Amino acid sequence: MTKIGLEIHCQLTKLESKLFCPCKANYREFEPNHNICPVCMGLPGSLPRLNQKAVESATSIALALNCQTPEKIAFFRKNYFYPDLPKNFQITQLNVYGDMSVGGEGYVDVEGKKIKIRRIQLEEDPGRLIYEGASDRTKITLVDYNRAGTPLVEIVTDPDFENPRQVRIFLNILSDLLENLGVAEPGLEGAMRADGNVSIEGGNKVEIKNIGSFHDLEKALHFELTRQQSLSERDIDIVMETRHWDDRRKITVSSRSKEEDQDYRYFLENDIPWVKIEQSTRDSLKENMPESISSKKERYVEKFDIAPQVAEIIASDRYYSQLFENAYSEQNAKDIANLITTDVIGFIDTKEKQQTSKITSKHLSDLIDAINAKTITRNSAKVALQEIVKSGKDTKLILQEMDLGQVSDSSEIDAIISQIFEDEKQAVIDAKERPETVNFLVGKVMQKTKGKADPVKTLELIKSKLNQ
Ligand SMILES: [Zn+2]
């Protein structure tokens, strides 16, 4: 039987400061090595001070993933040497001797199957190594400590996944959930990373690391399963090891034999006392948690009669659901939802575009108002949206500037239709014989008016002209 487990690392990017010092958690905006201090550089005599908000965020994640959360938590030193780790140990958590990390024994429902969460722990991110140079001979390695000490939550699952597809669905659910909680931005480069471990019947466990994206993880898992099955068919032992995903060659390659926990010489971090998390704190975190994605979806379907697929798309994306929540009224909720899923998504289909987009909820309600008042067509709304996303100018101004007002004056449309009946004689004959071909003529009117003609009125006028 195939068994796949995951270890996910997610940065708490919404926090102000690092886990143990006042340096910024958002290290991305700094020049290399400009977001550091004696604490995150591990200088002698410096002492860590725990970021209370980080403990709360991590506890919220544990609660949202249905985990047990303990009365008190402890931190440990995980000792190893690597140039990106200035202290030569990482402050993390460990579940031993009755000490606990922020959460454990939770689960996530993936298409009716419970994927168990073994533990959730709070730890610090190491720095970053940057490799430069074109060839092996010119290659140099640079180190940037801006990231060192960034709050990181590690989420470890049981090996409950039976195939890579389940893994992908789980990761989508998890990243939507973390984003919805308002503690993380999984779309940011490097903000959410996942390692996988894979084993097949009778074989050893193999860990796959160094995976850049969820898409690559799925490919890496597929490759690894095929490799292990092929070894097993030829009666070759599957070695317990860590393998790296080679993105260029699309294969996994052996990198080292896997360390055991004892190799890390874990011991209690005595510079940080046990931290008590009162029941009342946990209760209030639970109470103040943002509405879950599933309950949002249910509300959209039940209250506004929005189609379940549409509700799902909006509810599971924090950006779209915030646009929707601030735009809708009782009357236009369904229209707003449809506008988002048919047109807005086309222009804003990545997290990067979400960040640069200038669109606001007011733009959406203004556009729907204009469509419903028949001052613009749906087609023109789409044209306007593209401009709104770029410039963020007021809807009315854009409609004016781009001359997108709907043409609903009968005589104006009639004149255009007369011209088209002249130009498209065969199509007129066709439409008289086979009424279903009338759309060709409607399309011609739309072409001429750049999509501004009132479609209902256009069809009406063409039909009456055909009957003359
Ligand atoms: Zn620092």
UniProtKB/TrEMBL annotation:
- Keyword Disulfide bond listed? The answer is no
Q: Name one GO molecular function term.
A: transferase activity
- Which reaction equations make up its catalytic activity? L-aspartyl-tRNA(Asn) + L-glutamine + ATP + H2O = L-asparaginyl-tRNA(Asn) + L-glutamate + ADP + phosphate + 2 H(+); L-glutamyl-tRNA(Gln) + L-glutamine + ATP + H2O = L-glutaminyl-tRNA(Gln) + L-glutamate + ADP + phosphate + H(+)
Q: Does the keyword Protein biosynthesis apply?
A: yes
Record keywords? ATP-binding, Ligase, Nucleotide-binding, Protein biosynthesis, Transferase
- GO terms under biological process: glutaminyl-tRNAGln biosynthesis via transamidation; translation
Q: What is its EC number?
A: 6.3.5.-
> What sequence ranges are listed for the domain Asn/Gln amidotransferase?
322-466
The record's section on InterPro entries has: Asn/Gln-tRNA_amidoTrfase_suB/E (IPR017959), Asn/Gln-tRNA_Trfase_suB/E_cat (IPR006075), Asn/Gln_amidotransferase (IPR018027), Asn/Gln_tRNA_amidoTrase-B-like (IPR003789), GatB (IPR004413), GatB_C_1 (IPR042114), GatB_Yqey_C_2 (IPR023168), Gln-tRNA_amidoTrfase_suB_CS (IPR017958)
Regarding protein family, the annotation reads: Belongs to the GatB/GatE family. GatB subfamily.
Assembly and oligomerization? Heterotrimer of A, B and C subunits.
Instruction: State the NCBIfam families in the record.
Output: gatB, PRK05477.1-2
Q: What does this protein do?
A: Allows the formation of correctly charged Asn-tRNA(Asn) or Gln-tRNA(Gln) through the transamidation of misacylated Asp-tRNA(Asn) or Glu-tRNA(Gln) in organisms which lack either or both of asparaginyl-tRNA or glutaminyl-tRNA synthetases. The reaction takes place in the presence of glutamine and ATP through an activated phospho-Asp-tRNA(Asn) or phospho-Glu-tRNA(Gln).
**Protein name in the entry:** Aspartyl/glutamyl-tRNA(Asn/Gln) amidotransferase subunit B
**Biological source species:** Candidatus Nitrosopelagicus brevis
